[in-house]
Write a structure and sequence with these properties.
The complex is a heterodimer of chains A (about 55) and B (about 260). By secondary structure, chain A is mostly helical. Chain A is built from 2 helices and no strands. Chain B has one domain. Classes of the chains: A mainly alpha (about 55), B mainly alpha (about 260).
């Protein structure tokens, strides 16, 4: 195992800002795209069905 | 004619080129590709952070490559697929092709942003600079502008079919940039390092590092397919709305 402890893991050998900065922004950008896609789908389906479609619980 | 060829002929491939028949097919496929993306991502992250060793030259900062390299590959590959759909749309005038090109563009731009951002996060500790006007970096930035240009041009034209054709021409012209990005590290003396993975030689890295990168690349592929199929469904619905509106308008006119 590369890491002695979780602290060691989060420290990333002194490069935590760069490594976690990369992963955090990537995750944020992807989650934003997925959220926007869902909003787009919901908006057009509501428009097409006039709100009479099947609503997700 | 032999039986297999006959069987192949019985399937009408153009049947699936119709947006209305493609709609449910895409809907069925989306969750499968989404789950595959999640599974590959989990396996890739585990391999990248807990199996792959520390790089003896760069230390832990090299672990950025598990997203940087797959994102950079995807940014170029999506552009090629987008241009291919655009070209098919121009040549055969199929409606779905233009919609596929439009569905891919935002995700291509997303991967370009990720490649540039993570490259910058790697460049600062390694080169001492967030950004340099190196051939690889500059051509990748141009790729981002090509994606933006494609989306902006498409959005600027009201008639979707005309928008498809205009944006398709832009996409096809921009293809010239992709080999420039890919070969930039060979053609010029770039600060960006050369390819660590090629088709002709064994990868210049530990097998576990390579495995982590490939798993993440598969995750990026599956994600792209899931997201673009999801988006193309919304696009089909949106254009249907326009068609219905036109019909409604025509119904209200005196004939």
């Amino acid at each position: 195992m590369t890491w002695a402890s979780w602290t060691d893991f989060f420290a990333m050998g002194g490069y935590s800002l760069y490594v976690w900065g990369s992963y955090a922004v990537t995750a944020a950008v992807i989650l934003t795209e997925v959220a926007l896609l869902r909003l787009r789908r919901r908006a057009i389906l509501r428009q097409l069905t006039g709100g009479e479609g099947v609503r997700r619980p | 004619m032999n039986p297999p060829a006959l069987a192949l002929r019985r399937i009408n491939w153009f049947h699936y080129a119709s947006p209305q028949t493609f709609l449910p097919v895409a809907g069925t496929l989306v969750p499968w590709f989404a789950w595959a993306a999640a599974a590959f991502c989990a396996a890739g992250l585990y391999t990248g952070f807990f199996v792959a060793p520390t790089d003896h030259q760069q230390g832990e900062v090299y672990r950025i490559i598990f997203i940087h390299v797959p994102a950079a590959w995807m940014s170029m590959f999506i552009y090629l697929v987008m241009a291919l759909w655009a070209g098919v749309g121009l040549a055969f005038n199929t409606r779905l092709s233009g919609m596929m090109a439009s569905a891919l563009a935002p995700t291509g731009a997303l991967f370009t942003v990720i490649a540039l951002w993570t490259g910058s996060m790697w460049g600062k500790p390694t080169w001492g600079a967030w950004w340099v006007w190196d051939a690889r970096l500059t051509s990748e930035l141009i790729l981002l502008f090509l994606y933006f240009g494609f989306m902006a041009l498409h959005a600027a034209i009201d008639d979707p079919r005309r928008a498809d054709r205009a944006a398709a021409v832009l996409a096809l012209v921009g293809v010239v940039n992709v080999p420039i990005i890919y070969f930039s590290v060979k053609w010029w003396n770039t600060l960006h390092q050369g390819a660590s993975v090629g088709l002709t030689a064994a990868p210049a890295m530990a097998a576990t590092m390579f495995a982590g990168m490939i798993l993440m690349a598969f995750a990026a592929w599956m994600y792209t397919i899931a997201v673009s199929l999801h988006r193309v469904r919304s696009i089909i619905f949106e254009r249907k709305r326009d068609a219905d509106r036109t019909v409604q308008y025509a119904k209200g006119l005196r004939q």
